[in-house]
Design brief:
The chain has about 260 residues and is an alpha/beta fold. The chain contains twelve helices and ten strands. The strands form two sheets. It has a six-stranded mixed beta sheet with strand order 1-2-3-5-7-10, sandwiched between helices. Strands 4-6-8-9 form a four-stranded mixed beta sheet. α6 packs across α7 and α10 runs antiparallel to α11. The longest helix is centred in the first third of the chain and has 16 residues. The radius of gyration is 19 Å and the shape is globular. The relative contact order is 0.12. Bound molecules: acetoacetyl-coenzyme A.
Length: about 260
Amino acid sequence: MTEYSSILVETRENVGLIRLNRPRAFNALNTELITELVDALQKFDQQDGVGAIVITGNDKVFAAGADIKEMAESTVVDRIKNDSIAILSKIRQVKKPIIAAISGWALGGGCELAMACDMIIASETAQFGQPEINLGVIPGAGGTQRLTRIVGKAIAMEMILNDRRLTAEEALQMGLINRVVPVEIYLEETLKMAQEIAVRAPIAVQFAKKAINQAYESSLSDGLEDERQAFYLLFGTEDQKEGMRAFSEKRPPKWQGK
Ligand code: CAA
C-alpha cells in the first residue's frame, strides 16, 4: 500500500478507510493532503474487494478547512497554478460510495469535503460551518453551491455571510447529514454502514450513486431519462439475474459484481 504523509490508509474488511492526519494543523487541507486524499480515493475505487470508502479525521476535528498558512500570501496566479480545489473536485469521479465520519469541526473546506461525500455520519460534537468570510474570502470548494442546495438559501446565507455554525443535531434536521451518534461510536457506525453497502450488488450501487448525484446536476426530465436507461442497462449484469432469481427462490443473493 502507498505510503502517505498527511493521511493514514487501511482497509477494514471490504471498506477503504482514509484518515486525515495533520492533527497539529487541525487537518487543514494543504496541497499535499488533498493530493494524497484524491490518490487514495482513486486507488480504492480501482481496488477489487473494496465496495465503499470512509473518510474521517479524529475525535476533535474532521478538518478545519483549507490550509490558511499555505495560501495566505498567494497571488491570483499562484492560486490558479496550484488549483488544489480542482484536484479535490476529482472526488466527484469516484464511483464507489464515500461516507464521511465526522467528529468535531468540519469548517470551510472541511465542510465542503464532507458535502462532496455521499453520506455523512456525525458525532454529537460535530460542528459544521463556512467561516471563510472571517478571512476576507468566500467558500471555494462547493460551499455556496452544495450547502445552498441542501439547507436552502436562508440558512446558507447566514452560514456564509455571518459564520453561523450548525450543531450536529441542527445539521441532521436540515438534511445535511444522515445520523448523529455518540462520539465513542461514530467511526464504528460509519464503518458498519459502509460494510453493509459494500456487500450489495456493486454495479447497481455505483449506478444508484451516480443517478442520485445527477439529481443535483440536471433537469427532472433528463434525470428521469438517464435513471431509466441505467435501470435497463442493469439487466445486462449477472447480478440482476442472480438478485431476481434469489428473490423467487427465497434465498440470499450471491453478488459477483458482473
Ligand atoms: N489552516 C491552517 N492552520 C490551521 C487551520 C487552517 N484552516 N485551522 C487551524 N489551524 C492550526 C492553527 O493555526 C493552530 O496551529 P499553531 O498551534 O501552529 O498555531 C492549530 O491548528 C490549532 O488551531 P487553534 O489554535 O486556532 O485552535 P482553537 O481550538 O483555538 O480553534 C478552530 C480551532 C476553531 C478550528 C480554529 O483553528 C479556526 O477557526 N480555524 C480556521 C477555520 C477556517 O477559517 N476555515 C476556513 C479556511 S479557508 C477555506 O476552507 C477555503 C475553502 O473554501 C476551500
